[in-house]
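Need tokens for this chain, all 303 residues.
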Amino acid sequence: MASVTIGHDVAVERPVESLPAWWRRGHSFAFMAVAAAEVGLTWGVARLAESSYNLAPGFENVATAGIFGFLFAQCFLLGLWAALGGLATVPRWLAVGAVSTIGALAVTCELIAPHWQEFLNQGPIMAVLAGLTMAGFAVVLLPLRRLAGWRVDFDAAYHPSTGHRRGQLGLMDFAAMFCAVALPLTLGRAMIELMGEDAAEFGIMVPIFVALVLASAGPAAYAVLARRGAWITLPLCLIWLLAVCLFQSILAASFPDLDLFDGRTRVWGVNWTVFAFHLGVAATVALPLGVLRWFGLELIAVK
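Here are the structure tokens for all 303 residues:
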């Protein structure tokens, strides 16, 4: 049985089995449409990055930083759904893996087209890299599924109470975490087999970008999906985003090796490339989640 709140103070019990199947729910088709649009947009951004667009001197790095933020934020969205989304575990992870692979192959097709032989060589590498990044985000977010009881779904009725208090971990929770950690490790090993010694550079850069993206993507997703208090969470998210940009800009100025995009232009102490990166991340996360919020997507706390 699942508890469903009607209005503000009336709760009724509704069995999960009586809920309509996914193909009878409008938000299911909205979710698939947004996923398809995100894949198409990823291909379009890759095409923009590959084309010879003309920018004023000094803005090439800003555009590159924004594009990197967009691409890594797409992996965050997939990791968010893999860790906290609806559906059963196996279908959810298979769907996320399929979308991740299709998006990576779309980018590869645009970057190296029309050389199909090169596509056969680089396609698997890009797919493994996208899966590795997505799995990294999922591993970081997965503990929130049990510790905080968080779910990202359209209807709380599909998530009946687990019967356990929040913050309590059982044997199966540890087993699930071990399996989740094993996935990026396996993909990392596959990356080494495909790329050889060159994979070491990605092994260093991916965790760095995952940490940077989480700093802006996590608050943006929470601000959009929170059930209440949007009037305060959204302004706080913007303030946090500016604080993160300022902090990273100060670090990049003090330690040049941390200046990932070679940004020299600053406004009020904020590096433009750093701001473009985090703005690209926050916008990429907030816009599709905002669209799905109109169809009922929200952050649900399951006891």
